[in-house]
Amino acid sequence: MGPGRCFCHYKPRVCRMNLWKFLFLCTAVAGIIYLNKQWIIPSYCPSLSDIFSSISSIVQKNSGRDHRRPKIIHGDSSFENSDLQEEEDPFDSDDDQRWHEMIKKLDTHRESSTNSSKPEKDQQLPFEFPNIPPSPPRYNLSTERIVFLKTHRTAGSTVASLFKRYGYNHKLFFALPKNLQAKDFLQTVKFHRSFIFEYPWVPQQKYNILASHARYERTEMEFVVPKATFITILRKPEDQFESMFGFHNIAEDLDLQNTSNPLEKFVDGIKAYYKTEMKFRLFFKNGQLFDLGMDEKDMDDERKIYAKIKSLEEEFDLVLIREYFDESLILLKKLLGWKDDDILYFSSRVRSSSHRYEMNDNIKAKIRQWNKGDVMLYEHFNKTLQWKIQEYGPSFQEDLERFRRKNREVFDDCVDKNHYDSSDRRLKRYVLSNFADSLCKELNRNEYEYHSLLRSLMISNKLFRV
Question: Bias category Basic and acidic residues: which stretches (predicted)?
Fold first, then answer.
């Protein structure tokens, strides 16, 4: 064989045979590796499988160690040290620590595999929900295009009164129900643009404010109030549940009023009552999530609840919290560029003592268990409220105290504390003093009185600005 000539030049059959052997050998080796990785190792040597996956995890985590999530909210304060920041990477320590944790994990796996009587494939680990980070704030928000998603028995009426008073004073158009006698939109079906009364002089049926009860549906609401700032309010689930029960006279409807504790009786039988046709049934299981568009069939699916909360975090610009009402209003004022006078309020539709029920810790625990979705929702947005307070800056406490002082002074000047309006025995309404001025009258006007006033003004075309 001369220089430059290969062996295959003289023996092509032998060369082709060796090539086929080589390809067969490679295929066999690849098949063995695949079977070991996918079946043999996991089935008969799970510890070795865990070692491979752990090594892969270490490599992936080390390669991405320098890629950190940027600060979520901009401003003077950073939330990097807050209790909802990303968990510390367990592999950020030295190599010995990593291997120690990995071996410990393998030991735990071996123990559980040995002691378990069920096959490993039948065991399902609980789903761990990672913390949902706050969404970056949207800038250039509209101060005159607002959707307030009013939830049930959360002080939503008081907040709705603020928006309706502001809109009335600034001559803004309101999206109101098609039924001229209705004060709220349909509450058990998601909002649709066809629900609104179409005023012929409103350009393309685009409005400034939607603040009546309506079930959340983002696309349809954005059609009616384009480029809107979205706001809602939440309340501690056990208190919201009790308020729904008392305000809507559920005890009388279910013939529980003569029991020692109607609320406790109702809670103990909630699964059975929920299957009946009692009024407001859909609001007695995760009612706040239901208001926010969660479907009834998904109320026990924690993964879908988690996904819903995540989407709400991204879609709402501010979620007020009933238990931090004044603090929430300070954030609202800053968000919309309002003044202190714009957020002055008298509490609206507050229940009288005759429609309240005592709750012990046992009742509260049962309510929270039944409304796990609302608990998850409330706890998340309660934390985001604290973040927003921190972001507000060092003047927050001073601004809060100034507002509370002014609100208290206005209340003292306006209200006759010796008398109440008892026309609705469920509610405690204030009576104005003889010295009440126009501001007092505006503050004492509830949202439904504003609704009637706005309706008549819009029909007569006296509100004209969009």
Answer: 107-123
